Amino acid sequence: RRRARSGLRRRHPRPAVTYTAELVTDERAFAGLAADWDRLYRRCASATPFQSHAWLHSWWQSYGGRGRLRLVLVRHGGDLVAAAPLMRVRR
């Protein structure tokens, strides 16, 4: 005897996708992100030179003295997949 097929397939659970967010506030830690940042930069077809680690880090060293560094990083499985370079300024 055969069972009627309902059109539904049995799904196997996939492992959870893990993303982590990190806040970097230290200039030395920013400098240490060069390799990860450069890998992310190379993967982004629409990236501009102003999004490169070299440009952003040199900008921070030149103009960041009046604010507080705030880098928001998102990682997936340890790989950097998003970065938001920010500066907090009190007025």
TrEMBL record:
Superkingdom of the source species: Bacteria
Molecular-function GO terms, alphabetical: transferase activity
InterPro entries xref list: Acyl_CoA_acyltransferase (IPR016181)
Name of the protein this chain belongs to: GNAT family N-acetyltransferase
Keywords from the named record: Transferase
Organism, scientific name: Streptomyces sp. SID7499
SUPFAM superfamilies: Acyl-CoA N-acyltransferases (Nat) (SSF55729)
